[in-house]
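Protein modeling request. Please complete all fields; requests missing the sequence field cannot be processed.
Requester role: graduate student
Desired output: 3D structure, token encoding
Chains: 1
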Amino acid sequence: MIKTERLVLRPWKIDDAEALAKIGNNLNIARNMRDRFPHPYLTANALLFIKEFEKENPQKVFGIFLNDEPIGSCGVFQEADIYRKNAEIGYWIGEPFWNKGYATEAVTAIIKYGFSTFEIERIYAAVFHYNLSSKKVVEKLGFTFEATHHNRVFKNREYYDELIYSVWKKDWK
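Delivered output (173 residues):
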């Protein structure tokens, strides 16, 4: 469990599935996620997701909770082989909680956790070019823009650019 000023990040539990589905079942969230996060997002999807990560050690995925209610999810995923010193972060916040600083607070916590838990030197975020809110979060946290991967994302029958931002452990505040 990770505590921040306003939030608690903790592993998802089977009992959270219905609440996770309720907050995650939103087209505006799904459009900014990989296809494995479908719309509609049902309790069955939430159960599969929770079961996939519940036995991880160390934990990679956390629910983001405000006053014991889930408002989103985040994770840090160490890569393998020659990329093993890198990890990707992912995060989403339920739409009723947008523009309140919760994503920035949760991502700050997951970065600290990632650098202290995994043997990594670099954390990166892959952001769809149209996701201005996500770009704002990583830029606010001091990530460096590295690259535009043109037409790398194929989602909803269209191609989109993917933007890569990163922060190095030595530069993390």
